Amino acid sequence: MPEQQVISAEQVQHLAGLARIALTPDEIQHLVVELGSIVDNVRKVSQVATADVPATSHPIPLSNVFRPDVVGTVLTNEQALSGAPESADGRFKVSAILGEEQ
Amino acid sequence: MSTDLTRLTAAALADLLTTGEVSSVEATRAHLDRISSVDPDLHAFLHVDTDSALRRASEIDQLRADDHEVGALAGVPVAVKDVLCTIGMPSTAGSKILEGWIPPYDATVVARMRSANLVLLGKTNMDEFAMGSSTEYSAYGPTRNPWDRERTPGGSGGGSAAAVGAFEAPFALGSDTGGSIRQPAAFTGTVGVKPTYGGVSRYGAIALASSLDQVGPVSRTVLDAGLLHDVIGGHDPNDATSLPDFWPSFAAAARDGAAEPSLAGVRIGVIRELGGDGFQAGVNQRFTEALALAEAAGAEIVEVSAPHFEYGIAAYYLILPAEASSNLAKFDSVRFGLRVTPEGGGTVEQVMAATREAGFGAEVKRRVILGTYALSAGYYDAYYGSAQKVRTLIQRDFAGAFAEVDVLVSPSAPTTAFGFGEKIDDPLSMYLNDITTIPANLAGIPGMSLPMGLAPEDGLPVGLQIMAPARADVRLYRIGAAIEALFEQKWGHRLLAEAPPVRQHQPVSASHLAPAPGYGTEPDGGTR
Fold this sequence. Notes:
The complex is a heterodimer.
Chain A lengths: L8 H10 L6 H18 L34 H5 L5 E2 L2 E2 L10
Antiparallel strand pairs in A: 1-2
Chain B lengths: L9 H10 L4 H19 L2 E4 L1 H16 L11 E5 L26 H8 L3 E6 L33 H8 L5 E5 L6 H7 L2 E4 L20 E5 L2 H11 L17 H10 L7 E5 L9 H16 L3 E5 L7 H16 L20 H12 L2 H13 L6 H22 L4 E5 L15 H6 L5 H6 L3 E8 L6 E7 L5 H19 L37
Parallel strand pairs in B: 2-3, 2-4, 7-8, 7-9
Antiparallel strand pairs in B: 1-3, 4-6, 5-6, 5-10, 9-11, 10-11
C-alpha cells in the first residue's frame, strides 16, 4: 500500500462540489481510502498507453448519423412535465437560481 | 392442463399458445402465481404488473381467437430489467432518486416486445444504475440466488437472471455494460447474451456508460435468447449508435446449431489470460471439460493470447465512471425523480446537491466522484485518455485472435456465485470479478454465457463464455446451441433441472390479485 495519500480529503470535497453531491464528512473520509486504492490500481493504464496508440472512444464508430429535418414524435408539454418534482404554467419550477450574495 | 407452464421454455410455450392448447391468460397467471409464491423470498422483481399483464394476455387471446396475425411469440410472458423505460410501470434503475418515476415513453426494445404481443410481467431488480456485480447495491434490497438463498445472483442484472432461473418468467431483458447479463447468467445456471454494440437499441435504456452499454436477452435456453433477440434487435433511428446492418434470425441459427450438434471445422480460441491461476478450481475444471466436449464434437481448440486484457479492468473503471458521471448529471432534481430541499431552503445548486446526496447510494457516489476525477483538467490525459488507448490495444488483441479462430471462449466468471457481504466492503475486489466479461464491452463484440456444469466444491453453476467478432452474433447462437445440446446429451437434462427447490411462501393464488372471475372471457373483453 502506498504511504502517500493518492487523493486527499480536500480533493474529494472539491470533486463532490463539481459533481453536485453534498457528501458528509464521514463519506469523504471513506472515499479518500476507497478511491485511493482504486486509483492506485487503475493508473496502470498509462504503462501501455504510449504516444503511438490511437484512442478509441467508440467501439464501432459511425459517421454522419442524421435524420430528416422534420418534426418527429415528441412528448407533449404535459408528458414532459409528468415526472417533474414541481412545475408551474407549463414549465419546470426550481428554487432560486442565485444565492443572496449575488 | 397438468403441465406446469412455468417450466416450459418460451419456445415451447409459444407453440402451445399457437395451437390454442394454452391461453395467454393461463400462461400469464401461472407465472404471476409463481412470482407470488417465490418472490417474497427471492426479490427478483421490483414491480409486478399483475392487472395490466392479465388484461393484455386476455386481449392477445382475443386477437388470436379472432384470427388476427399475432406473431410467433404472442402471449408469452417476459420480465424487464428496471433500467428500461416502460410506460405505465415505474422505472427506477434500482435507485431511490427515481423511486416511483413512470416514464412518458417506452424504450424501443420494450415497444418492440409490446408489438410482438409479449406480455410484460414487471420490472426486475438490479444494482443501482447497473453499477455492481451482485445486485447488493440495489436501493431496494438485494435479490437472492435461486440456487442458494445466502448467495448473490450476480449483477447488475441479478433480478432478471434470478427471475428466469426460478421459473418466474420464461425469459427477460437485461443490459450489459461490463458483464451485467453474462455474469448473472453464469451465477444462476441460465443463458445471457450481450449483443454487438449497436445491434440492439439503447433508446430508453437509462444510460450508465454510453460507449459500453448494450441491451440483450436473458433466458434458460440459447433458442429462447435468439427468439427474444430477434424481437428487440435491428436498427433504431432513435439511437444514433444503432447499426444499420441487416441481421439474420438468431433463433434460426440456434435451431440449426441444436439440430445437428456438431462442431466440425469450428476453430475455438482459448484465451490464455482468462483462466488458470486466480480462478476457482471447479470453474477451471468444468471449463477444461467443456473444451474436451467441443473437441470431441469436431472443434479445433487453439490457444490464443490477449496480452492487454490485464489492463482491461483498469481501463473499464476509468471509462465507465467518466461516462457515468456525465450521464448521471441529468438527475438534477428538476425534470424527474427526487427533490430534496435543504433545511431553510437553498439555491437550485444546493437543492441539487442535497437531492443527489440523499438519492444516490454509496457505489453510485463512488463512481461519480471517480469519474469526475478522471475527467478533471490535469488528469484527463493520464487516466481517461490512456484508458481509451487501452481500448484500442484490446480491440487489436481481439482482431489478432479472430484472425485465427471463429469464436473465443473463457469461463464467464472467475468464481461461482459469492455470498452476501463478501465483496461489498471492498469495491476493488468486486471490480476484479469482472475480468472475463469486460473485454467484450471495451471492444464492442458480442458475448454469450451458457451453463457448463456445477463446480464440484460448492455445487453451484459455472458459465461458459463464447465471444464472436463484432456483427457475428449469429455464431454465438449456432455454436452456443450446439454446445448446449452436447451438454444436455451428456447430462440427460438441462442444468437447471439440478437446482434445489426455492423457498415457497404459503400458496397464494394470483386469483386474489386478478380481476373478477370471468375477466378476459367476455366476447369483446379488451380487444381493440
